[in-house]
Amino acid sequence: MGRFLDSDFRRKLQSPDKLIDRSGIKEGMHVLEVGCGSGAFTTFVARTVGIKGEVYALDIQPGMLMQLKEKLSRPENRDIRNIKLIKGDAHNLPFDDNSFDLVYAITVIQEIPDKNKVLKEIKRVLKPGGILAVTEFLPDPDYPLKSTTIRLGEEAGLILDKVEGNLWHYTVRFKTKKK
């Protein structure tokens, strides 16, 4: 499964451009990826936010972060300097309140034991009017229906913004209240 998660085959099925567009990721944003794994989409997001933006790639598993670090050392990725690797637990995000324009999670939320606590932590670190983008993909063994993802986000106090995609691959976007 590990080879599939960070493969060109997966990226054909789950286009990075489509994922970035659906998530609302834009140039200059400060972004947090929860559960980055080996970085299947991290480099694409880093290039999208550009030199004025930053991507914080958080994972609880040191081995995943090591794989991403190795990926960043490859010649095709040496130009990327706006990714910060963070070993951390999504239940207790190591960031100040109102730190990020956008947080995204790709096939991760369902793997976390206390989903409500994690979503509240994400809400805490988002700026007012910030975006949480949750993307799910049906081959994932923990795949939830859109209605489940929407319910979890709303229970955590997030505001549903947009739902895009189909049964096989979707993104649900939430926002925090603006001040």
UniProtKB/TrEMBL annotation:
Superkingdom assignment = Archaea
Query: In Gene Ontology terms, what is a biological process of this protein?
Result: methylation
Keywords, sorted A to Z? Methyltransferase, S-adenosyl-L-methionine, Transferase
Q: Which ranges form a coiled coil? A: none
Work out whether the entry's keyword set contains Nucleotidyltransferase.
Answer: no
Q: The Methyltransferase type domain covers which part of the protein? A: 32-133
UniProt cross-references to InterPro entries, sorted A to Z: Methyltransf_11, SAM-dependent_MTases_sf, UbiE/COQ5_MeTrFase
- GO MF, one example: methyltransferase activity
Any single Pfam family the record assigns to this protein: Methyltransf_11
Official protein name in the record: Menaquinone biosynthesis methyltransferase (2-heptaprenyl-1, 4-naphthoquinone methyltransferase)
What's the source species for this entry? Methanosarcina acetivorans (strain ATCC 35395 / DSM 2834 / JCM 12185 / C2A)
